[in-house]
């Protein structure tokens, strides 16, 4: 009898163990769902704020879009190989012992270089994600040009970050630490009120709604990065984030294109902002327009931002994780007055204003329409959206590896059709097939 009880005990024990193993394995299978859920959630946000009807295509087309310069196919004579100065500069961090450990093979494209740099805001933990981005930017463009790369961080960059990024870049690398004044709560912010907002947004499951650092990041990108000492040396910037992809060759210098065509700001993806993050942003913008009518430019893009002549915001914005733009414009009194006005109203902390709508509204009101450029030929991905160039010949010429079906531009949640219409520009041939 004692023997069979023991057997029974063994069987029950084995059974319990099996159940435990089953639970462990099934819960670990759920881990990847976090990303999916996050993206679905973002998608819902946009669905929520999307227009009733997507902008109708084809209306008001007048002038053709400015054509991009043709790809440079000629081999480059050796004597034209422009050398850029080598080395690595530091501000607020320890010297980088990894600079110049390898000869930099840069500058093979002929012609002058612009006064320009890549700029990346990142944490040390982003190193492998930014490494992927850098590799693609270098392969598709910069290995021919050797433009510099400025890295900014609210903490000190560690040796691994500096070693990996210096090795991957063809131009000079510079590592800067962000001033405490520019990454923190300004004294006019009521901390208690800001904390309550984060709790509330957390409960409402608003993405990054409970994050303090995300807010500092958005405020920094909105009002400070272009004033970092390392960026004062440049006129043009190209923002690169971790984990992005470039799908096509970039066969000319976009910085030079910007300069020659008198562009100040550019984008590849546009969309509707998640309204819960910016309920009073437009009120603040209206306050600014009233206080500083001298900064509002004639021939601006108000029609891109508002469907009722400026009364309300339609939530359209350029996605700022990709930007090529003019730093002197961001440093202008007009932009600084604008940023200070918004900052004072507190929405970076009392709501969760993003730098994308902040930059976009500035460009929309304080630049002339044709100073904003859409780069159809720069193919780009940042989770969860893709810009794959419209037009098969462009994709073949530029050796693109994106699936045109993934192109977001002519989707109802994109604002790019509206951009074309409000600028009286002809949409690229073949766009109808992608709707
Ligand atoms: N140094 C530093 N960089 C940050 C911090 N938070 C975000 N960043 C950087 O700021 C940029 C934007 O942050 P992301 O986390 O990519 O924000 P996002 O693009 O809205 O969201 P994702 O979908 O997660 O990419 C990236 O280049 C980040 O590396 C931070 O706390 N410190
Ligand atoms: C580059 O641009 C910055 C900012 O406009 C300027 O201060 C600097 O003199 C320029 N450098 C060169 C070499 O033109
Ligand atoms: Mg990002």
Automatic annotation (TrEMBL):
The chain crosses the membrane at residues 7-25. One of its GO terms (cellular component) is membrane. Residues 84-95 have a biased composition (Low complexity). InterPro entries: Glyco_trans_15, Nucleotide-diphossugar_trans. Keywords: Glycosyltransferase, Membrane, Transferase, Transmembrane, Transmembrane helix. It holds the Pfam family Glyco_transf_15. One of its GO terms (biological process) is protein O-linked glycosylation. GO terms for molecular function: alpha-1,2-mannosyltransferase activity. Residues 96-105 have a biased composition (Polar residues). Residues 45-110 are annotated as: Disordered. Belongs to the glycosyltransferase 15 family. PANTHER family: ALPHA-1,2 MANNOSYLTRANSFERASE KTR1. This is Uncharacterized protein. It comes from Cladosporium halotolerans.
């Amino acid at each position: 009898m004692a023997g069979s009880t023991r057997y029974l005990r063994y069987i029950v024990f084995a059974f319990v163990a099996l159940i435990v193993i089953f639970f462990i394995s099934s819960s670990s299978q759920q881990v990847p769902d976090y990303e999916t859920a996050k993206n679905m959630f973002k998608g819902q946000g946009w669905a929520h704020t999307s227009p009733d009807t997507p902008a109708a295509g084809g209306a008001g087309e007048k002038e053709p879009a400015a054509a991009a310069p043709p790809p440079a196919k000629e081999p480059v004579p050796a004597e034209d190989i422009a050398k850029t100065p080598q080395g690595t500069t530091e501000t607020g961090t320890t010297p980088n012992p990894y600079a110049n450990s390898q000869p930099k093979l840069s500058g093979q494209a002929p012609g002058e270089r612009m006064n320009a740099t890549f700029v990346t805001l990142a944490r040390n933990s982003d190193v492998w994600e930014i490494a992927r981005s850098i590799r693609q930017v270098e392969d598709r463009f910069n290995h021919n040009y050797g433009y510099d790369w400025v890295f900014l961080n609210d903490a000190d960059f560690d040796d691994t970050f500096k070693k990996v990024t210096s090795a991957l870049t063809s131009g000079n690398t510079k590592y800067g630490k962000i001033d405490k004044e520019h990454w923190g709560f300004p004294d006019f912010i009521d901390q208690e009120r800001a904390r309550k907002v984060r709790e509330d947004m957390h409960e409402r499951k608003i993405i990054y709604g409970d994050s303090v650092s995300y807010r500092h990041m958005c405020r920094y990108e909105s009002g400070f990065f272009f004033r970092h000492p390392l960026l004062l040396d440049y006129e043009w910037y190209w923002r690169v984030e971790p984990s992005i992809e470039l799908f096509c060759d970039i066969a000319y210098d976009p910085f030079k294109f910007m300069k020659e065509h008198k562009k100040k700001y550019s984008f590849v993806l546009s969309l509707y902002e998640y309204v819960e993050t910016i309920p009073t942003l437009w009120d603040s913008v209206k306050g600014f327009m009233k206080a500083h009518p001298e900064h509002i430019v004639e021939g601006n893009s108000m029609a891109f931002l508002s469907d009722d002549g400026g009364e309300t915001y339609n939530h359209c914005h350029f996605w700022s994780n990709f930007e090529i733009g003019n730093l002197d414009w961001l440093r202008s009194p007009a932009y600084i007055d604008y940023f200070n006005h918004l900052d004072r109203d507190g929405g970076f902390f009392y709501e969760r204003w993003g730098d994308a709508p902040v930059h976009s509204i500035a460009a929309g009101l304080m630049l002339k329409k044709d100073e904003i450029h859409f780069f159809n030929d720069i193919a780009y991905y940042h989770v969860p959206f893709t810009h794959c160039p419209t037009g098969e010949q462009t994709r073949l010429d530029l050796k693109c590896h994106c699936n045109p079906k993934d192109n977001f531009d002519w989707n109802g949640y994109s604002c790019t059709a509206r951009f074309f219409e409000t600028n009286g520009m002809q949409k690229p041939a073949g766009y109808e097939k992608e709707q």
